Amino acid sequence: MKLRVKVDYSTYSALKEVEKEYREVLEDAINYGLSNKTTSFTRIKAGIYKTEREKHKDLPSHYIYTACEDASERLDSFEKLKKRGRAYTEKPSVRRVTIHLDDHLWKFSLDTISISTKRSRVFISPTFPKIFWRYYNKGWRIASEARFRLMKGNVVEFYVIFKRDEPKPYEPKAFIPVDLNENSVSVLINSKPLLLETNTKRITLGYEYRRKAITTGKSTKDREVRRKLKRLRERDKKVDIRRKLAKLIVKEAFESRSAIVLEDLPGRTPEHMIKDIKDKQLRLRIYRAAFSSMKNAIIEKAREFGVPVVLVNPSHTSTVCPFIGTKIVYQPDGGDAPRVGVCEKGKEKWHRDVVALYNLKKRAGDVSPVPLGSKESHDPPTVSRWLRAKSLHSIMNEHKMIEMKV
Ligand SMILES: [Zn+2]
To answer: Which letter does DSSP use for residue 380 in this model?
Structure first.
């Protein structure tokens, strides 16, 4: 968060002196990193600390540390630009300097912020905007690192960073396996499967169709075309689905003190998934939206709540019987129920996604018995309208009510 503070002349000049020497250290640090082909903070610091300390005798020594850190970050992002062919200079140029501070170089209080300079500390008194108080009063903590930048007219821009400690993951009492698919996400709660439709593949294909209709025969640089494409809001829609689904699942796990079990999916599209899509680009897009981005959304949300996540081996999760490990045979041509298979030995019927759920749970180390061939194992409750649901429990209860009425 940026705080703008107007300071008096002597404060400003004391900070200006720091800026000048910080810039010199920063430039030396960058040059050292370049000539020694390293972006590592530790190596840069080890390489230049002694000489810089000699050169800048009255500069508080921690400015040398933070300048080395700054250099390491700049070198890192320069490397990345270079790899993408987007670096237009030979080396990272230091134009504007924002001075990095660590916990030795500044102290925060609501009255004044003090900053170390060459001779003594200077004090600045910002007025805090509303948004500051919103964070400050809502459990966010001010980080020990901060930054400042000198502007024209004796103005200091001071950046405080708010952080929130992530809760520690608890010891799980149960497991909630989550199986991701191109058009749905299934969960198993207290041995009850539930299939939530996401229609990710259908949505992606629908947008692809509409995008083609807009762009065919026209340049994508055309203003009208660009406006129309923007209005499609494909990403917004998918992000919304992901976010809400992740929240439902994580809340359920949090309240029952469970761990979430997910398949440890590869980063690239596995060819056997979404194999009916020929277009490689399109296949990758569906894979990302339905599998990897969905997985990441759940993991991220879980981290926020301190819900433990167990990643398990994804191979053959839907083709092995969770009772005895025999093969589950699906109709090669799909048939009427393409996602329902039969156990080779026990002859019981299984829905693909339910098999996967039980196998995921098993692989996470849960040895509780699998309930014997219920209707739900081959015909799980399927819910399409869950976007506004408050919890997975409420969805399940509602579904039970509907079934009873039927
Ligand atoms: Zn079986």
So the answer is: -
Distance from Cα 339 to the centre of ligand 1, integer Å: 16
- Cα of 271 vs centre of ligand 1, distance in Å, is 27
Residues 364-377 have pLDDT tens digits of: 998 888 877 678 88
Angle at 66 between CA 62 and CA 67, to 5 degrees: 110
Q: Return contacts of 274-282, CB within 8 angstroms, 24+ apart.
A: 274/182, 274/201, 282/204, 282/205, 282/208
- Distance, in Å, from the CA atom of 293 to the CA atom of 263, rounded to the nearest integer, reads 13
**Ligand 1 mean position, distance from CA 321 (Å):** 5
Return the structure tokens found at 351. 């829905």
Interhelix angle for 234-255 vs 392-405, to 10°? 90
Length of the chain: 406
By three-state DSSP, how is residue 335 classified?
coil
Q: How far is CA 267 from CA 40, 153, 263, 295, in A?
A: 27, 50, 12, 11
* C-alpha 337 to ligand 1 mean position (Å): 18
Crossing angle of helices 9-35 and 41-55, in 10° steps, is 130
Please check whether residue 187 is in contact with residue 135, taking contact to mean a CB–CB distance below 8 angstroms. Answer: no
CA–centroid distance, residue 246 to ligand 1 (Å): 31
163-189 per-position pLDDT tens digit:
987 788 899 999 999 999 999 999 999
Contact 326, 344 (CB under 8 A): yes
DSSP annotation string for 190-224:
TTEEEEEE--HHHHHHHHHHHHHHHHTTS-TTSHH
Q: What is the pLDDT of residues 264-323, one digit of tens each?
A: 987 666 666 677 888 888 888 888 888 999 999 999 999 989 999 999 998 888 899 988
